[in-house]
Amino acid sequence: MEKILTGKPVVAGSAEGAALVSKEPISFWGGICPRTGEIIDRRHELSGAIVTGRVFVFPQGRGSSTSSATLMESIAAGVAPAAIINLKVDPILALGSIVSDELYHQAVPIVVLKEKDFFSIKENDHLTIEPDGTVKINTPP
Pick from 5, 4, 13: which is nearest to 94 by CA? Predict the structure, then answer.
C-alpha cells in the first residue's frame, strides 16, 4: 500500500530508504558519531541505532550550531542518513546539508511535514523522497 504525503522541501533532493523514527529531538553534535552513523547519545530513545542510509524521522534538532559540521562530516564519511524528515525547519541541519552540497557535491534532502503526516510514518516504512517535498510511504506487509 502506497501513501503520498506533501511536505516542504528545506533542502531539495531525491532519496529513499527505510524509516528510522524517533519522537525525541536530537543534537547531531554529541548525538551522532560522524564516523560511524551511530546514535551515541545514551539518553536518546534510539541510542545505538545506525542512521546510515535510513530516512531519519525526528521532530527537530536539539541545537548546537556544531550539528551542521557533524552532519557535513557524516556526509563526507558516507555514513549520513539518506534523508531527514522533521516537524519544523532546523536551520542548523539545513546549513550542514547545503554547505556539504557546495563542498562535496552531496546533500542530505530535508523535508518538513505537517504533524498529522509526520506521525503517520512508522519504523521501517519504505520512504521515497522527491525534490518537490513529496514523501511516498510503502508500508511493509
Answer: 13
Rounded average pLDDT over 66-92: 96
- What is the C-alpha to C-alpha distance for residues 86 and 90, in angstroms, rounded to an integer? 8
Question: According to the model, what pLDDT value does residue 83 have?
Answer: 98
Out of 22, 64, 67, 74, the active site residue is 64
| Residue 104 to residue 100: CA distance in whole angstroms | 5
Q: Is 33 helix (H, G, I), strand (E, B) or coil?
A: coil
Q: What gap in Å lies between CA 19 and CA 58, rounded to an integer?
A: 10
Task: Write out the CATH class of domain 2-138.
Answer: alpha beta
1-5, 24-28, 61-65, 67-71: range with lowest mean pLDDT? 61-65
64 is annotated as an active-site residue: yes
pLDDT at 92: 95
